[in-house]
Write a structure and sequence with these properties.
It is a multi-pass membrane protein. InterPro entries: Chloroplast_FAD_CarF, Lipid_desat. With 330 residues, this protein is mostly helical. Strands 1-2 form a two-stranded parallel sheet. Strand 1, helix 3 and strand 2 form a beta-alpha-beta unit. The longest helix is centred in the middle third of the chain and has 27 residues.
């Protein structure tokens, strides 16, 4: 008999994957969480620092919010942002109430959101499972998934760096992402009000076509690499949400993933939320940040210098002249 076809491999995996989807995504359709009132206003990779205790993590989350409020007031004073009447009030759980600034943005779930999350999850699990089910041994699939995760960490940083530093809402294709990432610095607590499906469904939609293409046209191990690379972007955005959520509102397993360094930790991400937002861009685990940010690599400064020499465009991080000076010396 010949080797199993992709369709047969996928059929073998469906009994394993479908229960996961039913347990995670479908409940979102059946029970919508109650939303708080919201306001709408115009060397080598190093492990992350030791995880602080829960009360310290809560203080770090609050410090990002307070820094954003101060930054917003400074931006209003300089005329770089529309005036805000007063800081948003706090809800019953102690969080600042959400602030939505982008057209069409909403914290409400729609049926398509969990459907996109479920479908993108199914395809990613199917691609990885096929590599293990249809291969001669576990080594090649494990290598493909590991490399996909490493590339996914770098991609999460590259996309974060690009949207933080370039573009605006008027930028074609990625304008909403540019405005969302840049506006996030002024109201970082808002992301904590989103459900998982609301938070990642757009990334899931963007990942569908290339994941299907990888399943159809690539051998199992390369397809698993591509699927892991793309699905890790959903995970990165969700892990990012956790870092802006007070620890007492996270489940024990979520805090456990942060403690284990599998998910981005608050103590790692808080270093990014300091003007001019020029470091700590990777948001999957954050383990590449020390390597990319420091000498002699200075990866983002080198990219910024390259872009500047090609088209003369200065990144937002160069609003700090010290960052610009470092980049132009490279």
């Amino acid at each position: 008999m010949g080797s199993p076809t992709p369709c047969r491999c996928l059929l073998r995996l469906l009994p394993l994957v479908v229960p996961l989807i039913e347990a995670y995504a479908l409940p979102t359709l059946r029970a919508r969480p109650t939303r708080a009132p919201r306001m709408s206003l115009p060397a080598s990779p190093l492990p992350p620092p030791p995880t602080p205790p829960p009360e310290a993590r809560g203080a770090l989350v609050a410090s990002m919010d307070e820094a954003a409020l101060a930054l917003g007031e400074a931006a209003h004073a300089l005329g770089e942002a529309p005036p805000r009447r007063a800081p948003p009030p706090r809800g019953p759980d102690g969080r600042l109430l959400p602030v939505l600034t982008l057209p069409g943005d909403s914290l409400d779930d729609t049926p398509i959101m969990p459907a996109l999350l479920a479908l993108s999850s199914l395809l990613a699990f199917a691609a990885v499972g096929r590599a293990f089910a249809c291969g001669a041994g576990p080594l090649a699939p494990l290598l493909g998934v590991a490399l996909g995760g490493l590339a996914g960490e770098l991609l999460s940083g590259a996309f974060h760096w690009a949207t933080d530093n370039y573009g605006s809402l008027r930028t074609p294709v990625v304008g909403f992402a540019c405005a969302a990432f840049q506006g996030h610095h002024l109201a970082p607590w808002t992301i904590s009000y989103r459900s998982a499906a609301n938070n990642v469904h757009k990334i899931g939609a963007a990942a569908l076509a290339p994941t299907v293409g990888a399943l159809l046209w690539l051998p199992p191990v390369p397809a698993a690499f591509v699927a892991t690379l793309l699905y890790s972007q959903l995970l990165a955005q969700e892990f990012h949400r956790w870092t802006h959520t007070p620890p007492h509102l996270l489940a024990a397993w979520q805090r456990g993933l942060q403690d284990a360094g599998i998910a981005l930790g608050v103590n790692e991400h808080v270093a990014h939320h300091k003007p001019p937002f020029d470091k700590h861009y990777c948001i999957l685990t954050g383990r590449l940040n020390a390597f990319l940010d420091e000498k002699p690599v200075l990866f983002w400064r080198r990219l910024e210098a390259l872009v500047y020499r090609i088209n003369g465009q200065e990144p937002n991080s160069w609003k700090d002249p010290r960052v610009k000076e470092v980049a132009l010396r490279l």
